[in-house]
Amino acid sequence: MPTLANQDQTWGAFTDAAPWVLDRSAITWLPVANRLRAAAQAEVPRLTKPSKLPPGTRVLTVAGRLGFALLPWAIRKKRKKYADQGASRADVSLRLRMAAERLGPTYIKLGQIISSGDGLFPAELVSEFKLCRDQVAAESWDDVRLTVEQDLGARLEDVFSSFETKPIAAASIAQVHAATLRTGEQVVVKVQRPSVSTLVRKDLRVMAWLAPHLVGRIPIAALANPPALVELFAETIVEELDFRIEAANMLDMSAVLKNLQQDRFVVPRPHPKLVTRRVLVMERVDGFNFDDVAGMHDAGIDTEAVIRSGMIAFMEGAMIEGMFHGDLHGGNMLVLEDGRTALLDFGIVGRLSDDRRMAFLRMMLGATTNDVRGQVAALRDLGALPHDTDLDAVIKDLRLDQPTIDPTSLSGEELVKEVQRVVKALLGYGARLPKELMLYVKNMVFLDGAIARLAPNLDIIGEIANISMLFAERHGERLGRELGVTADSWAVNLDTVKAGFGLEPTVDSLTYKDLQARRELIQKRMRDHVGR
After folding, report:
1. DSSP H or E stretch at residue 356
2. How far apart, in whole angstroms, are the C-alpha atoms of residue 467 and residue 310?
3. What is the domain extent for residue 386?
4. C-alpha to C-alpha distances, 171 to 109, 225, 346, 454, nearest whole angstrom
5. Is the confidence at residue 290, as pLDDT, over 70?
6. Who contacts 55 (Cβ-Cβ below 8 Å, separation ≥6)?
7. Which helix (H) or strand (E) holds 430?
8. Quick check: is 181 in a domain?
9. Vertex 293 angle, CA 330 and 515, to 5°
10. What distances in angstroms separate CA 234 from CA 59, 201, 210, 453, one per listed residue?
11. How far is CA 94 from CA 115, 129, 468, 522, in A?
12. More confident position, 351 or 130
């Protein structure tokens, strides 16, 4: 039960040992956060509108770096110097990653987002950009000190009794330092890189100008749809440039978790006064890195319970509250000694409007009940397809009205042709990936990989059935009322789930290890075919 010392636990999922108590009516930076968020999103169309003329001198630097990186690859490809398509993709991916690192924070951030997109982007590109995660140089201590003092309006020593000059972590937009307040609380201080806000906006204009010229030029760019990717990136990054928005996200997300009674998650408290556009002071939380499976097992932590609660909370946040953490990865999650998970870094958050949340609900319902037309209609309403799309034509062209084929029964040539056919059909209908759907899929990809590390023997089919039952128990009445269906309509059709994995109805279980073996077989056949 919350005590007088931590009454904010009555409305938010916060830690038990409160360094300060949050009273939403007394937080100095909170009243402007919603206006700042709306202003940031309103800026996106202007930043991503392609200009006829190159937008300033920055375009020369960007074009020069990209040209220098890609020209040798283009020449080698034209002269057929690569042994196979895989070698060609690996080389262009390496060159793009090196160019991104030279171009600075904006392009490194784009690379980091791509690096979390297993299954959304080519494997070679994802693998290469994963190297961007831990290779961002820290800003000088003098620049960090100047930023903190300028934004807080006081000398460092007047606010902090200690401040570590070496950062705990350095990312593309900001870096984080450990510190102690004069009042004794241990905190971490997130400090934005100098001038990154201006540079990001310049780079977005450059990206918007370059993107149309990249369509169809290289296979990776053609698949990613550069103009749509730039728009997605802009929608994601503009909110990260003001830490008052991030701090407000922390409060909102903690309230969502509390409303959902997700007591296995906590959010660090942002300081009620020490938050500005470029500086965010929050309580310090210690725990196991999300990838430290051995450490968690030695501490007696049930890692299957950790991953199970993560999947449930993530799905509940999207479907019930219309809000979820938008950038799940190992560096943004700490597992406490008691088995709870602390969520960190709320610069990227998925927020679904009521209409889109309902569309998302219909999509999930269609997936569990084999309602193909309902799923396609929901994707349209989510913004993935134009509003005037002929749904029946999409179903026919994508062959969604035909029985699901076990992909392991197809040859490498058949698999490649099927992927190409689907991609071509989707692009022909003007399909795009809305921000919220992209963030959701990206997080599902992360959780999928986390299962491999934390719970490889988890029965996927059994978990889907259990989660469906839990949703029916907790939210069945509300979901039925919102969707206009009976409780029975929400029941998961396990035969449909099994068919989605390419399994026969008689199969009772599928561990993650089994699923991974099937995927590796599919990937090997595709690689072998492309490499011929």
Report:
1. helix 354-369
2. 12
3. 354-531
4. 8, 26, 14, 25
5. yes
6. 202, 205, 206, 208, 209
7. none
8. no
9. 80
10. 17, 9, 14, 32
11. 13, 8, 42, 25
12. 351
